[in-house]
């Protein structure tokens, strides 16, 4: 297949997937059921039967991690002053909770901004989130408290 054929095929697939899904957008960024009931996303990717491959999953993880980091950089002026281990812990928490839910941890975030990492760790740990995620919270709160990676 030539490069021209490749691009023509992509255009054809995009047109056909758009027509099949009956949507004004060409791509679907949220999962939807196609005309035969298969869970689908993007340009007609069948998640029920095909799913995604390891490279796509890894790419999504990297994109989501970058999004979490960018949220923190935009939201907290003090974030860049944290050491890299505490930055990583906060990115992990944002990755897990989303920015809106992270912002509800006002006492923990104020303590982080003030450099009171023991209090910040205690505030994160004394939460419904910590009870829900278990060992993840134990590890991340220890990272915040000590500034050292946990194993």
Secondary-structure map:
Blueprint: H1 3-21, E1 28-33, E2 39-42, E3 45-46, H2 54-75, H3 84-97, H4 99-102, H5 106-114, H6 117-125, H7 128-133, H8 135-146
Antiparallel strand pairs: 1-2, 2-3
Helix pairs in contact: 2-3, 3-8, 5-6, 6-8
Describe the structure.
This protein folds into 2 domains: 44 residues, no CATH class; 93 residues, Lysozyme (Orthogonal Bundle). Helix content is 63%, strand content 8%. Strands 1-2-3 form a 3-stranded antiparallel sheet, with no helix packed on it. The longest helix is centred in the middle third of the chain and has 22 residues. About 3% of the residues have low confidence.
List its salient traits:
mainly alpha, elongated, single chain, Lysozyme, 63% helix, 151 residues, 3-stranded antiparallel β-sheet, 2 domains, 8 helices
CATH level 1 class label of the largest domain: Mainly Alpha
The helix/strand series, from N terminus to C terminus, equals: HEEEHHHHHHH
**What's the overall average pLDDT, rounded?**
88
- Which structural class best describes the helix and strand composition? mainly alpha
What's the architecture of the largest domain, going by CATH? Answer: Orthogonal Bundle
What is the topology, as strand order, of the major beta sheet?
1-2-3
Beta-strand content estimate: 5-15%
- Report helical residue fraction: 55-70%
Total DSSP E strands: 3
CATH-derived topology of the largest domain: Lysozyme
Work out the count of structural domains. Answer: 2
| Assembly status | single chain
Radius of gyration: 21 Å
Biggest pleated sheet: 3 strands, antiparallel
- Supply the number of helical segments: 8
Globally, the shape reads: elongated
Spatial separation of the terminal alpha carbons: 49 Å
Unreliable stretches covering 5 or more consecutive residues: 20-24
């Amino acid at each position: 297949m030539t490069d021209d054929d490749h691009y023509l095929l992509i255009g054809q697939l995009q047109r056909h997937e758009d027509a099949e899904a009956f949507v004004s957008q060409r791509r679907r960024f949220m999962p939807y059921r196609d005309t035969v009931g298969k869970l689908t996303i993007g340009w007609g990717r069948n998640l029920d039967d095909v799913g995604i491959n390891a490279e796509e999953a890894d790419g999504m993880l990297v994109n989501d991690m970058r999004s979490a980091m960018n949220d923190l950089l935009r939201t907290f002026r003090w974030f860049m002053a944290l050491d890299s281990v505490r930055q990583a812990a906060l990115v992990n928490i944002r990755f897990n909770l989303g920015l809106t839910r992270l912002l509800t941890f006002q006492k923990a975030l104020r303590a982080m901004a003030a450099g009171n990492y023991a209090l910040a760790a205690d505030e994160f740990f004394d939460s419904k989130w910590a009870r829900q995620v278990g060992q993840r919270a134990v590890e991340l709160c220890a990272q915040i408290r000590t500034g050292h990676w946990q194993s």
